[in-house]
Amino acid sequence: MKLDSHLILALDVVEEKRALRIAGEVKGIADAIKVNWPIILGVGPAIITKLSKDVEVLCDFKIADIPNTNRLIVEEAFKRGASGVIVHGFPGEDSVRACVDAAKGEVFVVTEMSHPGAERFNAPIAEEIARMAVKVGATGIIAPATRPERVRRLREIVGGLRIATPGVGAQGGSAAESIKAGADYVIVGRAIYEAKEPGKEAERIAKEMRKELTS
Ligand code: 3DU
After folding, report:
1. Does the annotation count 34 as an active-site position?
2. Whose CA is closest to 97, among 83, 82, 87?
């Protein structure tokens, strides 16, 4: 995926017309659009192919199954035009490796999620998951924008792997802080797609990150 604005739009809307309008407004601003189950179930998987004509699409299916099922999901996502997939790390090395082997593009492994509940079961194993992501040759990891100190720590572990951080805006995280902590991309959903002018809000966030990177 390109790394230009450092912004990935999480397009969690469930109507096709609205999805395509917002995608059009952020065209040329966001480096990629992330699709998750709400849009896949609301609009249908053909939206991956449709969006991918104009922008790189990251399929956030949080794939978390046995290796064979993971492989099948990953193959279908790339067949439809995805540039990357997001997979869970907790099912183990064989499950994540199956995704890396099947991928025709990028694989991001969730290390630690951004919501408060992740602190109990997820955070204690996040660093081990990050080490596994490096070992299996993943493209990058997902780390929490809501906890920049964790992004910083996970960066130490993954070295040059890409880090994408959701949790900016509606969940309370800051784009500039994430970048400062070592993120390559921030993932933003509601703060952009619920804005009156999604394109302008996307541009504002991209500018905030540019400023951080050049300061
Ligand atoms: O909170 P937002 O509306 O900006 O959306 C964040 C998106 O990122 C959403 O699709 C969510 O499912 C995803 N995500 C997280 O929020 C946190 C994670 O740890 C992983 C993915």
Report:
1. no
2. 87
